[in-house]
Specification:
This protein has about 375 residues and is α/β, with parallel strands linked by helices. The protein contains nine helices and 17 strands. It has an eleven-stranded mixed beta sheet with strand order 16-15-14-13-12-11-7-10-9-8-17, with helices on one face. A six-stranded parallel beta sheet has the order 3-2-1-4-5-6, with helices on both faces. Strand 4, helix 4 and strand 5 form a beta-alpha-beta unit. The two termini are about 40 Å apart.
């Protein structure tokens, strides 16, 4: 099966440092066919570096190159126009997160999508981290019972942390009420990121998300999560699942057997080196099956033969999910609907903490 021809729209850091290394290593799945940026200099540099045609006009690129899919990686306030254009042209696309900056833009984009044959996926990578995917597989077995409460503690900001919470509770649960809190604390004056102003304060976002299923999510995020020497690597930050018959603190998982016995789930990570890159092959969990005997539950990496590090695997799986949707004609797993919901929850949290922490009923914003 031939690799699908892919176009990159945008030439910023995310396009260059996240998507390009992934695309180069998804051999046989996608191939870069062309790039586009409004900046002629940026478009030329990226196109020449990758050896592909470059454009400053989206319409001209699509007309001439006819890509099978496009990755939209432009500044978040600028998503609406290219999404509407690609929808009008019938181009399949992966839209960078968040779906849009404003509710007005999201409404316009979803309306354009509803009129189009384009298949649209949103690049929500955090719930696709391999360590989160094996947790999802464990929950599907039912050994822990229904997950009642999920905490996301600085795993990802805003929509990223919210998407992780919803994936573990189940995307079918509808958010009904959101309450947000914001608190600022003084910290040691320090260099947060190279080239950025020093930071002497830390903003904490907290939110309670309640669902029609009776479940709830607790979201928290520190403004110093990404890069501050005061805080640990974000990939070490935990999520917690409290379920009817067990709990998980990241990959420390246990469940109740009988009335008084705690059973710990042993989880193994398997990796190998490909072209100098450590590539996760699988996560394996030993659980008790319906027969009453131990069974091995496996999440296998569908990109196990690609030289893509684990930190980029979630983003790579976003592309793969869109490719699979295009090939099968089915809608992608996450899609524009869930991108809309997660961003709407984030906007509701902001509305709540800017209005004396008053709860926001999600039906008021069309959810």
């Amino acid at each position: 099966m031939d690799a699908l021809k892919l176009a990159i729209v945008g030439s910023g850091k995310r396009a260059r440092e996240t998507f390009m290394p992934i695309i180069r290593n998804m051999k046989g799945i996608v191939r870069l066919g062309c790039v586009m940026s409004r900046s002629e200099g940026n478009a030329r540099r990226l196109g020449e570096a990758e050896g592909v045609p470059w454009y400053t006009s989206l319409e001209k690129m699509i007309e001439k190159e006819k890509p099978d899919l496009a990755i939209l990686s432009v500044a978040r306030p600028n998503h609406r126009e290219p999404v509407e254009t690609l929808c009008n042209l019938g181009v399949n696309m992966l839209v960078e997160t968040p779906l849009a900056e404003t509710r007005e833009d999201m409404d316009a984009m979803t309306a354009a999508a509803s009129r189009s044959k384009s298949i649209i996926e949103v690049a929500e990578q955090v719930y696709r981290f391999p360590s989160a995917l094996i947790m999802g597989e464990i929950l599907k077995t039912g050994i822990m019972g229904k997950p009642n409460l999920v905490f996301s503690h600085s795993v990802g900001h805003g929509y990223h942390g919210i998407g992780l919470i919803r994936s573990l509770l189940g995307f079918s649960a509808r958010p009904v009420r959101v309450t947000g809190f914001l608190k600022t604390f003084p910290v040691a004056n320090h260099i947060w990121r190279a080239g950025e102003p020093k930071q002497d304060s830390e903003n904490w976002q907290h939110g309670m998300i309640e669902f029609d299923s009776g479940q709830a999510g607790i979201y928290s995020f520190s403004s110093l999560t990404y890069g501050s020497p005061l805080r640990q690597d974000r990939y070490k930050n935990p999520y917690w699942v409290y379920a009817e018959k067990g709990m998980a603190m990241g990959l420390d998982v246990m469940y109740l057997e009988g009335e008084d016995r705690r059973v710990e789930v042993k989880i193994k990570r398997d990796a190998k080196t490909i072209e100098g890159v450590e590539v996760v092959q699988a996560y394996e969990a030993d659980v008790k099956g319906e027969s009453g005997f131990p069974e091995r539950l496996i999440w296998g990496n569908p990109l196990a033969d690609c030289a893509i590090p684990e930190k980029l695997t979630g983003s790579a799986l976003c592309i793969l999910d869109l490719v699979n949707a295009i090939r099968t004609g089915k809608q992608p797993e996450y899609g524009i609907k869930n991108g809309f919901i997660d961003r709407s929850i984030e906007l509701a949290l902001t509305e709540s903490w800017t209005n004396e922490n008053k709860p926001v009923m999600m039906e008021q914003v069309g959810i």
